[in-house]
Amino acid sequence: MPQNLTVCTWNINSVRIRLDILRDAVARLQPDILCLQETKCQDDRFPLAAIRDLGFPHIALNGQKGWHGVATFSRLPFAAIEKREFCGKGDARHIAVTLGAEAGLATPFTVHNFYVPAGGDIPDPDLNPKFAHKLAFLDELIAWERLPEQARAQAHTVLVGDLNIAPLETDVWSHKQLLTVVSHTPVEVERMRRFQATGPWVDVMRHFVPPEEKLFTWWSYRSPDWTANDRGRRLDHVWTSPSLAPHARAMTVLREARSWERPSDHVPVAVTFEV
DNA sequence: ATGGTTGTCAAACAA
Question: Which of A208, A230, A272, A274 could pair with A250 as two cysteines, CB 3.0-4.6 Å apart?
């Protein structure tokens, strides 16, 4: 029996102060698997009861005090949870969950949830250690041996998260003006493409909104009115293994969430798969 | 060209 699985990703920028709009996002998107980034909450302070009340009994956490942090919630049970550390810094920037037979799935379904370093303001690794860290993080992703090739071909895998890079010209409000702005510089975009080629990973959001059209998931807080000239970027992504891409049925970028009370600067993105 | 805002945790720092 095929079933629909909706996977949602959202950089929530503090999970504890946004439980109300988290509830609204869940009501709108009805995800089966919800991946958050920038939870800014250590694991022993996580609002587990509130998440369970939203309909997610299965919770996988990788948090730290004050900043970063990722979390993945599920309506269906996990067969496995895995966390990876990058750049030997102890940062909480990745968690993966796998759903299997316990969740009623014949083919295991793995979801990687990433929070890639933002990279600071100056796009020069010699002058800016945060940009150097971002590039080193991407180099580790490129070198990441996920699965043997044969297993990779059969597995259903999703990679979501705030990747902090807008690769296409239409992923930013002005390609020309952002070429020297961290998130859209050629050196980052080139590394992202190399990482994408290792899967290979399929940019499934662009199966629903063609690459010729602008598509954003983030609008800066530093603008008095985010709607005024739509100066956004697509920093949040949903990638799939080639085997899973044809199973994608729908995609939503919940733009309205940017206007909710006390919003995150990112909005949720959801993709529904028939598996 | 510059500065603009938000969150953590209580002074800077990160985004």
Answer: A272
> How many structural domains are present in chain A?
1
**To 10 degrees, what angle do helices A186-198 and A129-143 make?**
20
What is the reported pTM? Answer: 0.97
Tell me which amino acid residue A111 is: V
Q: Which of A91, A162, A171, A236 is catalytic?
A: A162
Whether A262 CB is under 7 Å from strand B: yes
Model confidence over A141-189: pLDDT tens digits?
Answer: 999 987 777 777 778 999 999 999 999 999 999 999 999 999 999 999 9
Instruction: Tell me whether residue A126 is exposed, middle or buried, using C-beta atoms within 10 angstroms of its C-beta: 0 to 12, 13 to 18, 19 or more.
Output: exposed
Domain carrying residue A162? 4-274
Sign of torsion, CA A252 A258 A263 A264? positive
Contacts of A148 (CB under 8 A, 6+ apart): none
Asked if A266 is an active-site residue, the reply is yes
DSSP assignment letter at A266: B
Q: Is residue A206 within 8 Å of residue A166, measured between CB atoms?
A: no
Q: Are strands A109-115 and A156-162 parallel, antiparallel or unpaired?
A: parallel
Alpha carbons A202 and A204: distance in angstroms, whole number:
6
Both tokens assigned to A116: 């890639």
pLDDT, tens digit (0-9, with 9 covering 90-100), for A209-238: 999 999 999 999 999 899 999 999 999 999
Say yes or no: Cβ of A209 under 7 A from any atom of strand B: no
Residue A8: count other Cβ atoms within 10 Å of its Cβ.
Answer: 25
The SS3 of residue A203 is: strand
Which CATH number covers residue A244? Answer: 3.60.10.10
Nucleotide nearest to A65 (CA to C1'): B8
